[in-house]
Structures are given as structure tokens and as C-alpha cells.
UniProtKB/TrEMBL annotation:
CDD domains: PAN_AP_plant (cd01098), STKc_IRAK (cd14066). ATP binds at residue 431. It comes from the Eukaryota. It is found in: Cell membrane. Keywords: ATP-binding, Cell membrane, Disulfide bond, Glycoprotein, Kinase, Lectin, Membrane, Nucleotide-binding, Receptor, Serine/threonine-protein kinase, Signal, Transferase, Transmembrane, Transmembrane helix. Residues 1-17 form the signal peptide. The keyword ATP-binding applies. The lineage of its organism: Eukaryota, Viridiplantae, Streptophyta, Embryophyta, Tracheophyta. This is Receptor-like serine/threonine-protein kinase. Coiled coil: none annotated. SUPFAM superfamilies: alpha-D-mannose-specific plant lectins, Protein kinase-like (PK-like). Its main location: membrane. Belongs to the protein kinase superfamily. Ser/Thr protein kinase family.
Amino acid sequence: MLLRVLLVALSLQLCASTDTITPSSPLRAEIDPSMVPMEPFRSSKAGILHLPPGKTVAWSTNISVPVSLNKTNSTSCQLLDSGNLVLTADNGKTLLWQSFDHLTDTFLPGMTLGLDKRTGLNRYLTSWRSKDDPRSGKYTFQVDPKGSPQFFLYHGSDLIWRTGPWVGQKWSGVPDMTHAYIFNYSFVSNANEVSVTYNLLSDSIITIFSVDGLTGTVQRQTWHENTKHWTKFWSAPKELCDQYGECGPFWYKPKSPRDWYLRDGSAGCVRKENRSMCRNGEGFLKLASVKLPDTSKAVVNKSSTLKQCEQECLKNCSCVGYTSADDSGGGSGCISLYGQLMDTRMYPSGGQDVYFRADAVELERQEEAERSLWTKDAEESDASSELPFFTRSEIAAATDNFSMANKLGEGGFGSVYKGRMENGQEIAVKKLAPNSGQGIQEFKNEVRLIAKLQHRNLVKMLGCCIRGDEKMLIYEFMPNKSLDYFIFNEENKLSLDWNKRFDIIMGIARGMLYLHQDSRLRIIHRDMKASNVLLDKDMVPKISDFGMARIFGNEQVQVNTTRVVGTYGYMAPEYALEGLMSVKSDVFSFGVLLLEIITGRKNSGFYHDNPSINLVGHVWELWKEGKSSEIVDPSLKDADIEELLICIQTGLLCVQECADDRPTMSAVVFMLNNKVELPSPNQPAFIHKGRQQDADPSSSSAVS
């Protein structure tokens, strides 16, 4: 009988204006079946709840586990806006039953997933038996409340994947967890319950978390209204190393070298023999970006400091390692690890620092290796006498272990993070991706160049960090991001009046003049564009990203290269097509950037009057027709017209097709600073689209 009531109630949302039924106001069975949001299931006894987009099933009665209730008077059944179906008595005062306590395969906002220790109610997800059969499938996702609580994905009784423990703002085993702008998680672990819930930060977002019985994964999907489709936002497990215990226990040497030779690491690793690690000079080795081992046997002390955690672990010979219980805000609390170190791994980014117990011999060997590594890298960098080296632990502490909250963005060679050093100085850390195009040579190039460059309009490098294949550059922090953030955004550009834009233009020009002429070295930047111009707190422009820069000899005028690097749309024709680079190549890029600042448009944009030409061609056509006023960004008001016209003409002189016709940067600075009559420019290069657009016009590329 109850299932019939639920079925009617679930159908009610589309069939009537009310969301509540009572014994005195029932719905009859004569409801038009075409109005009921049901799918043809193998069992006709299943009641389901649809989300509006795409009629996605969000909940169904679990016909594998029927529900029975005692009869009572004054009952009513109501479907809440949250999707929770509640059965109440005494005019809504007494809750008899709710669907949010009987989860199926989907975890909706507002639901609670986990264990209520007081009542014994365990809310967990269960996959469907098949795509069209809502009976219980073989996959479950549920909490393990022991030790430091975590959630497990099971296939029957077999462990498939685990989240790792909650470490303040995310799960240890979900390093790519990003939710700051979509939803907020709330995790509770106390004497009464171990549970997690989440809520959306915007009513316009529709997202669900579910267990997929077909793929054997947990996944989050978001609804895209424009395409009317669900998009997979995240899923796990993704790769072989995500599988629980795939590589066995973690330690210092393979348990079975023969199996490892045969590419079978499932037996894992063990401690080295005849090594005492009990009050015999042992200590701890730190590994960064680690997924915490299975914490079912761990001990948690939320009030302990990390130093106290180390001391307590050192006293207990059974303690094999420790880490922070809360990895946010510099770390707090303590998780002490015991037993086998099962299901751990290292991530390219994310994860957290874990300190593993090591004997005195291993500690000495590690310290010697680190000293040798730093000495070798410092000698090779050719900049050790001029630029400080930071340790990885210093940078990890400054960036909150490279947390997503501190991530500023991604460039062609990796990610950039904001950080704060112990002395309070704010920094920007450029962390090169392991598989980035910038190898050790480009890295050393950038370090060597910037270490020797000092100018108000060049970004200041504070130091670098090298640890094995991991390479990082540490710069002064630019709070106002990059120039493209302002000039290509309709709202942000309003904060840049003409005076500010002109100051930015002049700053960039002076910085490039320093590179080409006034510094100890003669440098061609090769990737001058809006995203490589950073802005400090006073909106002073700073040229950045010297990974592609090239040093010229004092007598060199032009060089031919077989490796063309830079960004399509900003490359000079002789460089893009023939590999010929000179200071005039940079001048061309500056000219494109100058016209972008004036117009507030990208060179790669489309123009309704002639969609086949780019920004440079668009400006050229208007300038020839004497329509310079139509070139200027409409948001610029009360601008100095004469100054604007000089800038437009200077920009066109810089993008002329023939390199010899372009002015030097010293001439550019003179023209911008003095209201003098300028020569007429010749036709620019690349005014039509398609001649230089074999790659994304906003991304840096290298062609060997």
C-alpha cells in the first residue's frame, strides 16, 4: 500500500498543482499515464522521481528492500522542492518516513550520506541493477567510520576505490576536487555521526553525484541548459593507480623483485631487513603530493600540532608515519598512521605532505642525495650566484600545498599559484607541468635571463626551485592579474580609462626598449601578448614569461631558427613563415598588442562588416578611409584624440609587412612621447584570416 502512495505522490508533481496528499484528499488511479514521469522498468512497482532536465531519474523506491509502516491517522505525504518525499503525521509535526533516508544511486544537494551512530541508520548509495532496472546492483558507496573516516566504493565486498579522509576542504584521494564556485561540502565526524552533505551556491546550477553500475564508478554530472545534456564533471576511479591496493602496501623495497621484473607490483613493498626503526636514530622522510594511505587504523588528534604529532609518533615504535588532519590554512591536527601503508600514491599536483618513518641509514642517504642534486642543479643553472634557490617545502607551505584556492591560472608551461612566504611577502609560483613543452633548457633560460634583468616594467624573479624533474619559478605577486583580464572583458575594461591605457602602453614600450637596447644583454622576447603583461597594485605593467626569449649578440641583427615559438596572431610574417627573428619581430608583436589595447578587441576576433579580416586588417581599412574614431574602444570617453591618433598610427607602423619598414622600440618610445608628424604606414602583414591560424590564436606553440 505504501508503495502505491509513493508512486502517486511522485507522479503528483506534473499532474496537479498541489504537492501534498492526505487520506481526505487522495489522488485517484485514473490519472492520465502520459502525465506520470515514469520510465518502463522491469517491475511495475517502482516509484521514481525525475529531475526536470532530460527527465533524469534522481530517486526511486528500492523494491529490493520494501518499506512498511504502522497505520496512523492524520497522515500526509509531501514532495519538497529539494526532492525529498516526506510522510508525516499529526498535521506535519511528526516525521514518519522520508526518501532522503533511503538513498538509491544518486546523492542530491541537501541529502546526508553517512552513518547516524545514535540510530544506526546508514545512508549509502547503491547502483541500479541495470540501466532500466532500479533494483539494487552490485556497487555501493558508503562510509567507513573507523580511524580517520573515509568513503569506499565497493563491488560486492571487494574494495574498488576510496576517497581518503577529509582533510579540511577536500578528500585526500580527490586532488582535483574543485567546488569553490559550484557547491560547498560539509563533513561531520563526531560521537553522533559521520556524514557528508553538500549544497549548491547558485540556484542556476543543476548537479548530481551518483554511482554508475555500468562503469563501476562514482561520478558527478552537471546539466548544461544550452545543449540540454548532462556533462561528466568528475569521476573515479579514472586510472589504474586509482584502484584500491593496485600496487600493494607502500614501503622501501619490492616484496617480490621477480614479480616487479615481470611488471606485477600487486604484492607491494616491505621494510628493509635488519633495520631497526625503534629508538635507534630513526626519523621521518617527507613525501609531497601524496594520497594518504588507508586510514582505517589511523589515530586522529585534532588538537595536536604537526611537531607534537612527530614527537608522539617517534615515541611509538608501531607508528609508521604521520600527517596533518586538516591540510588547509598551513595544516593543523594530526593523523598517526599504523599498520600497512595500503593504497597510497603520489600526484602531479594536489595531495598533501606525509612523513614516513625511516631508519638512520636511509635518512643519511636521502640527505646526501638532496645535497648532490642541489649542487648539480645550481652549477648547471648558471644563476646560483645571482638568484636564491627555495626548497620545495618552503614553496608548498607558502601556497598551502598548491591548493586550488591559491591557483591563479594555467599557462602554456604549467600552473601559477599565489603564495605567502613566512616573512609575509606575497609571491607567484610558476609550477611547470612534468609533461610541459618547457624542458630543463627553457627553464634554465628563463632563470638565467630574468636573474640578470632589472627594470620597472619587467616582472621580478625572486628565486627558483628544482627537485628532480619538478621545476618552479618564484616571482613577485601581481594582484591585478594580466592585461587580457581587463581589455578583453566588457565589464573589466571600464576600469581602464585612456590615461591608464596610455600609461600601460608606455610601460610596455619602455620594458621592451630595455630588453632590446638598454640591458646588459640584448633579448628578443618572442611571445609578447596581453596575457604576458602583468599588472601590479598600481596598474604598472610588467612584461613576463621569458621561457621563449632569445639572447642576441651585440653585433647580431637577425637570426634564422628552425624552432618557431610564440603565439599565432602576434608573430611577424618573416618569423612565422621563414624562421627569421630580430628585434623587429618583437616590434610587430608590440604593434598588435597596441592596437588591441586601443580597440579593446582581440586580433583573432571577427568583424561583421568583413569577417575574413582580423583586427589589424580592420584597423587598417578604417584608417585608410579616415574613420579613426571608429577604431577606438567605445568605452573610452574624454580621451586625448591627438594621443589616440598617434598611438593608432604607431601601431600600424609596427605591423608593416616588411621588417625594415618597422620602427625600432627606441623610435616607438619617441613617437609615443612626442606629438610629431609620423610617416604613413604601408599595408600590414596578415590582415586576412587563415594565413597564420593553424593553431589556437590564444595559445603559445612551438614548431620544430
